[in-house]
Amino acid sequence: NGSQFEAGVFQAALKRWGVSWGNSTTHYPQSNGHAEAAVKTVKELVLKLAPSGDLSSEEFLAGLLEFRNTPHATGLSPAQIVFGHQLRSMVPAHRSSYSNQWKDVMDARERQAEADANTKFRYDLRSRPLPSLPVGAPVRVQDPKTKLWSHSGVIVAVGQYRSYRIKFASGSVLWRNRWFIRLVVPAATESGSSEESTSPTAEAHDTKADAEMPGKEQPQLDPPPVVLRRSTRTRKPRVTFSI
Residue ranges under compositional bias (Basic and acidic residues) (predicted)? Predict the structure, then answer.
């Protein structure tokens, strides 16, 4: 959403290097889950090894090196996936750990791709896509802090990955994900609402007037007869014994 990503210098650099770039909407981290998980891990690493913010310290660099040598769920570390072997660090290791293992790397990539496909399949089972919104539709936008639908605007463009460019009443134009957008339903006409609201009242008034008229007698209904309930239990005669 930053204007620096729309600058001509940045777009020209992407074109020269053949990079296909796409931005994600704000306040929706699950759209870029792998990157957000990596950011969370690095933040924890900085908090533990470089609380002062000095990322050039030896403690932080050594911790980052060990993180790159730590195996993931695929059984291989990031260093093995990228370079085909472990990186030499302060932790003692056998020399065979630094040999190239490209076959294992390819197998790990296949396992990772299969795990990603299974994760997507399980997510799609319980999720449904929201209906798309056209350009020019009035919408309400949820505030990321208060969680209230307190902002209103108009859709001016439709982007990729279910993102919409919205122009707010203040004049600002921002990208928002479809999850935080709701279409504004127009209110009903005053004539229709007044007819619907007066009809039941009129009927209730007529019924009340008929009931309060002194000259109009109401039919008297006889109360239903009272039916006595008798027990149907079989009784046995009482037997007395002489002692």
Answer: 203-215
| DSSP-based three-state secondary structure for 52 | coil
Tens of pLDDT, residue by residue over 14-38, are: 899 998 877 777 777 777 777 888 8
Residue type for 75, please?
G
Give this prediction's pTM.
Answer: 0.49
- Give yes or no for a contact between 65 and 78, defined as CB atoms under 8 angstroms apart: no
CATH class of 3-125: alpha beta
Rounded to 10 deg, the angle between the 33-49 and 58-68 helix axes is 140
Q: Cα separations (Å) of 106 from 15, 68, 82, 180, 202?
A: 30, 18, 11, 39, 79
